[in-house]
Amino acid sequence: MAKIEHPDVPGLQPSPAYSHTVVATGGRTVFIAGQVALDEQGKLVGACDLAGQARQVMENLGRALAAAGAGFRDVVKITTFVVDYTPDKRAVIGDVRSPYFAGGKPPASTLVGVSALAVPEWLIEIEAIAVVG
After folding, report:
1. Which of 34, 50, 107, 119 stands the most exposed, by the fewest C-beta atoms within 10 Å?
2. Residues 107, 108, 113, 119, CA torsion sign
3. How far apart are CA 4 and CA 133, in angstroms?
4. Residue 70 in contact with residue 24, Cβ under 8 Å?
C-alpha cells in the first residue's frame, strides 16, 4: 500500500490550499495528462466561464484517476495552467478545486499563468500525479 506523507517544512508558512512537500512511497505512480473542459463528446463546457471550465476539468481528472484505480486522495502533485492569469482567478479556481481534496491534505501544487492553451476557448488546464498502493 502506498504511504503518502505531508511533512511540515520549517521556515515555510503552511497553506490550506496546497502542501509544500509530499512524500510518497510503496506505490504505483500515475501521471494524468493536462485535462481541459471538454465533455465526453468533445464539446467545450463553460465557454468564457472559468469556474465552469474548472469544474469540468476536475471532473475529467476524477475520471482519469478512476481509470487508473486512483482518486483525488491519491494525488500528490497538480499543475494548473490558467490563461491570462490575474490574482482574482486564484480564488475562483480554489473554490472549485477545494471540495475535491476535502477531508485530507491537499497535494503539492503549482499555478502557472499562460498567454494561451492549445485551443483559444480553453481557459484552464490541470495535470496531476498520483501514487496508488
Report:
1. 119
2. negative
3. 10
4. no
Q: Give Rg (Cα) of the chain.
A: 15
d(CA 53, CA 56): 5
Task: Give the C-alpha separation, 96 to 51, whole Å.
Answer: 7
Helix (H, G, I), strand (E, B) or coil at 109: strand
Question: Which has the higher per-residue pLDDT, 90 or 2?
Answer: 90
Helix axis angle for 87-97 and 50-67, nearest 10°, is 40
The CA distance from 87 to 21, in Å, is: 23
128 strand-pairing partners: 32, 78
Query: The whole model's pTM is what?
Result: 0.91
Position 127, amino acid: E
First CA to last CA distance, the chain: 4
pLDDT of residue 48: 97
Mean pLDDT, to the nearest integer, of 16-20?
89
